[in-house]
Amino acid sequence: MTRSFLGWPAFPEAAAREVGNRQLRENVRRATRTIRGKRAVLAAERPDWEQLRDSAAAIKDRVLAGLEEHLLRVEEKVTAAGGTVHWARDAAEANRIVTDLVRATGEREIVKVKSMLTEEIGLDAALEAAGISARETDLAAAIVQLGDDLPSHVVVPALHRNRAEIREIFAREMGRHGRPAPDGLTDDPAELAEAARLHLREKFLGAKVAVSGANFVVAETGTLVVVESEGNGRMCLTLADTLISVVGIEKTVPTWADLEVFLQLLARNATGERMAPYTSTWTGTVDGDGPRAFHLVLVDNGRTRALADPVGRQALRCIRCGACMNTCPVYERTGGHAYGSVYPGPIGAILNPLLRGPDDPQTASLPYASTLCGACNEVCPVRIRFTDVLLDLRAQVADGGKHPVERAALNTVGAVMERPALWKAAVKAAGLVGPLLPARTPLPGWTDNRALPDIPGESFRRWWKRNEGDRA
User: Residues in domain 4Fe-4S ferredoxin-type (predicted)?
Assistant: First the structure.
């Protein structure tokens, strides 16, 4: 049975387990720091880097402000180019549409281009329930699938695995799903890549149906864009007879000139390259070249819910580069699985609650999965203010009454701070009783993972008055 994040524990429980995995922490730390360093070098070489970020944010905001208009134009252009557009309100509807389209071809095995949206909606499990095998062809996604694992990063899904682990997975699992790994396979990267190439080539040449996502959809021509590093995606996009692309409604950009801005940002942020080795574009169908049938499934699945949030809607600017994860101290220590979603790290901490709503037990704790250090704000190519959204989502949790003790305590502190004389007395009293307080005070939910800091016996104001008052 295909694994999914359905039923995954909430972040506090999952993170407590993951931080105890030393090998995982080492794998994640090594990978994120490598990518982070390469990104910093390539960003610094562009004198217009900040202007590119400004432009990208403005383009995305313009799209979100007129999303319906842009989507209708996409539908018009794709249809005119020989494609068929389907609309899906949620995961169940998207899965039903894709399953029915595959069934209509009579095929029982398909190939896939790495797609976070299909992971989000659980498409592989839905196809499996219908007797259809979906084989991943992106190398990292294939490693995850062969290992009966789940993705832990939006760009490098197998980032939590090292070479020795990958060799073991290939040797054990490849033969069960097609061409086996060669005898004597080592963990040399060239050998691992060759084993994957031979195994996946068999899938490419035999598949009649391919499912893809898309990094962008250009509204002015109805063109879809996939950016990748290996060329496996292009094999899927061109060799299959039927291509089904499952795309979130927020992936639209108005024009090719707008696309240029994002292509200058994406690879630099995602993998530390000036440009991805493969940027594939396709528009509908063309006689004698590529798939004979093309279907575009435009998926909402909570995106209009996020769009209605005046602070949170900026999360829909995201271009899935992973830069926020590579700089996040929480992600570096917990890895991606702790977030219980294909979207981990800072973007997962805000996007998952926005898509699923505040009452989802799996995502309700995610706005607290952050130190609020702001490092993610500094690297985001589309200028998402993660800390603003996190604080707003935390306020929504507090306003929902789910933490009455914490809320009462903060209301009390707020009332004291509004009255200078009372606040001055409280600070003085804290200095006197501080040494008597236990390390953990009895506030369930608030102090479970927090130790009370040492309270100085003298406030700064009193120290200043005693030492500097005569000079002021």
Answer: 308-338
